[in-house]
Amino acid sequence: MILFLLLSEILNTSFYESFKEIPIAMYKTGLNANNKRNSCLFQYYQENAQDGYVARLSFPAGGGSRPSNAVGIESCEKILYGTIISRMRMADCSNQNKTGMVSSLFTYFNNGTDFSGVGISDNSEIDFEFLCAKPHEVHITVFTHYNDAGDKCSYMSRAVNMKTGIFSHNLYNDCKQYSNLEPSEQTPVSVAPIPDFEPHKKFYNYKIDWKPNRVIFSLFEDNQPEVVLWDYQYNSSRIPHIPAYILANLWHTNNWYPHGMSDCIQSPIYNVTSEYDFIQYIPYTPPENPPGDDSKKDNGLIYYISGGVVIIIGGLVLFLLLKNDQEKYNPSLMV
Questions:
Q1: Residue 196: which domain range?
Q2: 88 lies in some domain
Q3: Cα separation, 94 vs 135, whole angstroms
Q4: Which CATH number do you get for residue 275?
Q5: Number of separate domains in the chain
Q6: Which of 21, 108, 119, 149 is most buried per CB count within 10 Å?
Q7: Rounded to an integer, what distance in angstroms lies between the CA atom of residue 73 and that of residue 169?
């Protein structure tokens, strides 16, 4: 009974927030440097939105740096695995092309607890991120651990130039040194280029498919095929297994910049905006064996056993979460 009550804290139903109405599954987050809420407008008219309305994030000129000063939206409940899809327009810094602004869609939870017992705080995080100074480069990251001091962590990251389809890096970082991902962790090795990719000028669809043994990042234009950016299924210990919130935000960075562009961390002198047409969540459904398919019995058994382990771990995790009322917001510090 206790386990059931704990598991009920995880969202196990789908939602679709189009922002034409005030959302019920998500809410506004973020304080600016003056401890006043940054601008996040729901029901904001946008002629290029599917239903005419978006959630519009506006970061003020001179706003403070770091994710703690972000303006954003966050799910009311945590999820454990599932599919997240959003149609978004990233921040446009054309008026100041060396601005250090980050636009994102991600999952996140870190309250400083070492649930896995490895000596580092668990950091459940899967990111889509864009740097304003180089908008056609997509940064995708999977975190499992990160501590406040920033001296211990575990994460993988890739960056792809969508205009060329070429990846600029494929890295694993333990906060001591970087190493290249194994070749089998770099799937695909390149993607079909989108020569006119301008995510700061038009809406694209972004998708995170989070499973116990696999994470898939993809994007697509309206009425076009999906472009898979990363299909990771090599080592499940490098995939987060802690419930996390769904977030989208906009923030100023003063220490993360595109490779070779170290001057692109300027504080914005204009208000900077990003827009979210919709955010959708679809819960994860474990695979089932087709009737009479004996060849997959062993694989199915593994899924059922791992599913039970996930439920037990999820219950224990939630029990600890309920004992810790304050959660510390510490999103990714990227390459």
A1: 2-323
A2: yes
A3: 10
A4: 2.60.120.200
A5: 1
A6: 108
A7: 29
User: H/E/C letters for each residue in the chain?
Assistant: CHHHHHHCCECCCCEEECCCCCCCCEEEECECCCCCECEEEEEEECCCCCCCEEEEEEECCCCCECHHHCEEEEECCEECCEEEEEEEECCCCCCCCCECEEEEEEEEECCCCCCCCCCCCEEEEEEEEEECCCCCEEEEEEEEEECCCCCCEEEEEEEEECCCCEEEEEEEECCCCEEECCHHHCCCCECCCCCCCCCCCCCEEEEEEEECCEEEEEEECCCCCCEEEEEECCCHHHCCCCCEEEEEEEEECCCCCCCCCCCCCECCCCCEEEEEEEEEEECCCCCCCCCCCHHHHHHHHHHHHHHHHHHHHHHHHHHHHHHCCCCCCCCCCCC
- Looking at the predicted structure, is the pLDDT value of residue 332 above 50? no
Select from 68, 109, 317 the least CA-distant residue to 210. 109
Q: How far apart are CA 251 and CA 244, in angstroms?
A: 20
In this predicted model, what pLDDT tens digit does every residue of 28-86 receive, in sequence order?
A: 987 544 545 558 999 999 999 999 999 999 999 998 898 888 999 999 999 999 999 99
Residue 43 counted as domain residue: yes
Which pTM was predicted?
A: 0.85
Across 17-25, average pLDDT: 96
What is the phi/psi pair of residue 45, to 5°? -70, 130
Question: Is there a contact between 238 and 144 (Cβ–Cβ < 8 Å)?
Answer: yes
- Residue 322: count of CB within 10 angstroms of its CB: 11
Q: Is residue 116 part of a domain?
A: yes
Are 109 and 124 in contact by the 8 Å Cβ rule? The answer is: yes
* φ/ψ of residue 212, rounded to 5: -60, -30
Is residue 100 in some structural domain?
yes
Give CA–CA dist 127/283, Å, rounded.
Answer: 18
- Rounded mean pLDDT of the chain? 86
Mean pLDDT within 137-162 = 94
